[in-house]
Specification:
By secondary structure, this protein is of the alpha+beta class. It has 3 helices and 8 strands; from the N terminus they run βαβββαβαβββ.
């Protein structure tokens, strides 16, 4: 793993959250995007070398809606940038982690992504992401 790529925060209303985080960081989001496969709208902020991804559910049965219903708004996941996502999937499976998909899929911000089940990582949802070249 190379570094923390971003921290994902689940929010009920992306417009309201964008306004709040724009005030917090003193600058607007640099990118918004819809990820149809996950039924989410996202917004990204750059803070120094770090990124924050805000996630709003587009579907009341989607992953983010269920997360907010169960846990409320807040940190949803931590994403780590990897050199080769397929090698990392194999390595982490061999180490005993539960990977939620055998094949990475297209995520936001031009990334291939896959998630580790929180039950295998001390309750933290971990996202692996690799830049699509």
């Amino acid at each position: 793993m190379k570094n923390i790529e971003h921290i994902g925060i689940a929010v009920k209303n992306l417009d309201d959250a964008n306004e709040l985080y724009t005030k917090l960081f003193g600058k607007p989001s640099y990118k918004t995007e819809v990820v149809e496969s996950e039924s989410v709208k996202t917004s990204f902020f750059k803070v120094g070398n770090n990124k924050i991804e805000l996630l709003e559910a587009m579907d009341e049965n989607g992953i983010i809606a269920k997360f907010i219903e169960k846990k409320g708004e807040g940190i949803h996941h931590i994403a780590f940038e990897v050199e080769n996502i397929n090698d990392e999937i194999k390595r982490l499976k061999d180490e005993g982690f539960v990977v939620l998909s055998d094949v990475p899929k297209q995520g936001a911000d031009n990334k291939l992504v896959v998630f580790l089940h929180p039950k295998s990582s001390n309750g933290v949802l971990i996202e692996l992401c690799q830049e699509i070249i």
